[in-house]
Amino acid sequence: MTQFERVADGIRQDIEQGILHVGDLLASERKTAERYSVSRSTVRRAWQKLQALGYVHWTTLSAPTVVNIPLRPHDVSPSAMGKDMGEVPRSSFLSDLMSAAGSAARYNFEIGMPDPDLLPLRELQEVVRDLFSQHVREVFSYSPTQGIARVRQALSEEYLLRRGVDADPDDILITSGSLQGLDYVTDLLAGPGDVIVTEAPTFAGALQVFSSHGAQVLALPMDGEGIALAPLEHALTHSRVRMIYLQTFFQNPTSAVMSLARRHAVLALCKKFEVPIVEDDAYGFLAVKDTQPLRALDPGGHHVIYLNTLSKLLAPGLRVGLVVAPRDVVHYLSLRKQIGDLHTGTVTQLLVEGWLRSGNVTQHIARAQSVYSGRLRTASELVRSHGLRVHGSPTSGFYLFVHLPSRINAYALHEYAANREVLFAPGAAFGIGDTYGDWIRICVSALSTTAIHNGLARLFRMLDSFVP
């Protein structure tokens, strides 16, 4: 163990054993150097490691602040097999997010999921009865890796055409959620050190996927119409960009929508530089005007690989997503999927197909559009009335990306608020480094208007009284 690792480990133990608490300042650089008999530069390296691990927030203006006690399996001793694998990693943002999904907190603004009260239960119950009375053998059987043919047909006709995407069923791969599709596409297009362009901020899960493949992420700013064109063209000119990851509609975490003119301009740049776009359209069903995603503006799909999911429209627990790509790309991705999970669950695929063919899709989408836009407007008005800044001017979607008062760190506030039954997602997870350390993502999709009013009122009281 090097000197800076020894210092970092000592401070980490102080935090985990309760000697230091969330919101506490670490001892000064001088005092820490004296305590561990090391140089001040060694102390700074230790602080950098603690920040990377998520324990502290540090700028050069002051000593670090304890902001989090990452979940760690304290009771797990290294095994003979695992002893050489290094330190047990802290939980990731996604694992923390999935834990929040099961939280009993009264005001859960953290997890991005549709409102369970909007589930089309009657139609789904009818589909289930039919499957388990008429198709039992098929329900419990293996299915093709690419996806059941008639399910891909239903996705093509009853779902993708609503987004303007004309895709042959053979150009569709069914995945276990769209994040799996993004993982496989990234594996195909980018490797260690390759450059991937994203919007800033962007989906935390995508950043985690790109990091797992060793890719270098170049996060570019957005303006009122979407990803800024000048930085994008500069990146494409001066960097060896392997793919561009974009969310064109109701982006996570900002709920921003890329204008139609900007979509055309981005696609033109992509064609000029021959760099593929990976378009994540998870929230596109909420669009009511200028609804065409990039894939719809790219007939034949020569430049855009398109991702979508039923998690935001129907139910996340079904784990049914899809990739639309040229047929040869789908073939490569299918081979990759065989290694991962063989095929997406047969019963969930058939459940999705039954619902898509139920005749209720149009009505369900219209209701979702009305409910979610109303909730976002309510939350946006409340946040702005409290003097807080919202990223952009979202009109619908699941999320608000909110800038905290400058004295407040999101991780420290997160711990404080969680103990008072208010959850949200710290903004740093949606950027590179600590770019958004004083931002939070608020998800309003699964809360009633009354709960949004009451939960945000409680959060605002905490902001007014919180002492970091």
Write a structural description.
The chain has 468 residues and is an alpha/beta fold. It has 3 domains: 3-66, Orthogonal Bundle (Arc Repressor Mutant, subunit A), CATH 1.10.10.10; 93-118 and 363-465, Aspartate Aminotransferase, domain 1; 121-356, 3-Layer(aba) Sandwich (Aspartate Aminotransferase, domain 2). It has helices at residues 3-16, 29-36, 40-52, 93-101, 121-134, 136-139, 149-159, 178-189, 204-212, 229-238, 260-273, 327-340, 346-356, 361-385, 410-418, 449-465; strands at 56-57, 65-66, 107-108, 172-175, 195-200, 216-223, 226-227, 241-246, 277-280, 304-309, 321-324, 389-390, 399-403, 422-423, 425-426, 439-443. An 8-stranded mixed sheet has the order 4-11-10-9-8-5-6-7, with helices on both faces. Strands 12-13-16-15 form a 4-stranded antiparallel sheet. Helix 9 links the parallel strand 5 (195-200) and strand 6 (216-223). Helix 2 crosses helix 3 (40-52), helix 8 crosses helix 12 (327-340) and helix 10 (229-238) runs parallel beside helix 11. The longest helix is centred in the C-terminal third of the chain and has 25 residues, at 361-385. The chain starts with a helix and ends with a helix. The relative contact order is 0.13. The model has no long low-confidence stretch (mean pLDDT 90).
